[in-house]
Design goal:
The protein is an alpha/beta fold. The protein has 11 helices and 14 strands. It has 2 domains: 143 residues, Rossmann fold (3-Layer(aba) Sandwich), CATH 3.40.50.720; 187 residues, 2-Layer Sandwich (Dihydrodipicolinate Reductase, domain 2).
Length: 348
């Protein structure tokens, strides 16, 4: 299927690399508002370049658009793409409020096109093994379910774009922009949250409206308890791996980025030996994207895109459809509501 990218910069280039590597898709075009920059990017990528948005969407060969604009600017291009009959794959967060996401879902349903989110950290072997263990109920009764993102972003990172660190276009800070991947993984594995209590602050950066440090206490619908710690104010020379931890009365698993730090169950299974041989952390090392947002690989995006193409061709929803991508945003917005109200318990 033929892809077009809406947006420019680091994320758009990242999408281009993933599309180039994927099966079932090819990069057809890019759209940006600055004609000279778009022409240069299109030449570099070997595709069509558009600075006229209507002309970009009117291209009859274009089938799928990926959206790489700032977080709070995902709604309008999605509505326009849906109206033009194009499938949509949108960067995280799908949008910055559940209400805006609902508008995107409704527009794509009305147009009969697919809406998919990007949660690339779901698409690697360790995560697949983790999900399988949950589905097989190997943990017994889930008791503690946590996510930890202790990353660093420099002041220059926030100063690099006027939209960064704003509620309107960034949608939030360390939770909405960076920790959302781990929050998505956590609820994908442990299930939905019933209530939250939270605190947040901006401790290490200047000139931004949003948090660089947040902590939330979670009550899951299944009765488990847990915490989310998200920060871009944790300096490290190598960067700390982001972790999702699940514990139950029959097992514990700690996932650090794409490798396990702990894989331990009361009842062993034959596949455990293979997991210990191939998917365990070799040593304490740097975290993926922990200090540098460019320091991640595009394999997860590639697999995410491939799943969407396969879903369209099979007539099924993609693994991360609009409703699935909405869940993490709804939880983060509830955390923000609690933190802005002195830690008041907020029910979802």
């Amino acid at each position: 299927m033929k892809f077009g990218i809406i947006g420019a910069g680091m994320i758009a280039n990242f999408h281009a690399k993933a599309i180039e590597a994927m099966e079932g898709g090819e990069l057809h075009s890019v759209y940006g508002r600055r004609p000279e920059a778009v022409a240069e990017l299109a030449k570099e990528l070997g595709c069509k370049g558009y600075s006229d948005f209507d002309a970009f969407l009117a291209d009859p060969e274009l089938e799928i658009v990926t959206i790489a604009t700032p977080s709070g600017a995902h709604l309008d291009p999605t509505l326009a793409a849906a109206k033009a009959g194009k499938h949509v794959i949108c960067e995280k967060p799908l949008e910055v409020t559940p209400e805006r996401i609902d508008m995107m879902i409704a527009a794509c349903e009305e147009a009969g096109v697919t809406l998919a989110g990007i949660f690339n950290r779901r698409f690697h072997p360790a995560m697949e093994a983790f999900k399988k263990a949950v589905e097989e109920e190997r943990f017994g009764r889930l008791t503690m379910c946590d996510a930890y993102v202790k990353w660093w972003r420099s002041q220059a990172y926030y100063d690099s774009g006027a939209w960064r660190g704003t509620w309107e276009l960034d949608g939030g800070g360390a939770l909405m922009n960076q920790s959302i991947h781990l929050i998505d993984q956590l609820i994908y594995l442990a299930g939905d949250v019933a209530a939250v209590s939270a605190s947040m602050a901006c401790l290490a950066h200047e000139g931004i409206e949003v948090e660089d440090t947040a902590v939330a206490i979670l009550e899951f619908k299944n009765g488990a308890r847990g915490v989310i710690q998200g920060s871009t104010a944790c300096w490290s020379s190598t960067g700390h791996p982001a972790e999702v931890q699940l514990c139950g009365d029959h097992g514990s698993v700690f996932l650090a980025d794409e490798k396990f730090r702990v894989w331990d169950f009361a009842e062993a299974k034959p596949e455990d030996e293979e997991i210990h041989a191939t998917l365990m952390q070799d040593s304490e090392g740097g975290g993926l994207g922990a200090n540098d947002p460019k320091a991640i690989n595009f394999t997860g995006h590639q697999r995410n895109f491939e799943d969407v193409v396969q879903a369209i061709q099979a007539g099924r929803p993609p693994k991360v459809d609009g409703n699935e991508a909405r869940r993490a945003v709804a939880l983060i917005c509830a955390i923000y509501e609690s933190a802005k109200n002195g830690g008041k318990r907020v029910e979802l």
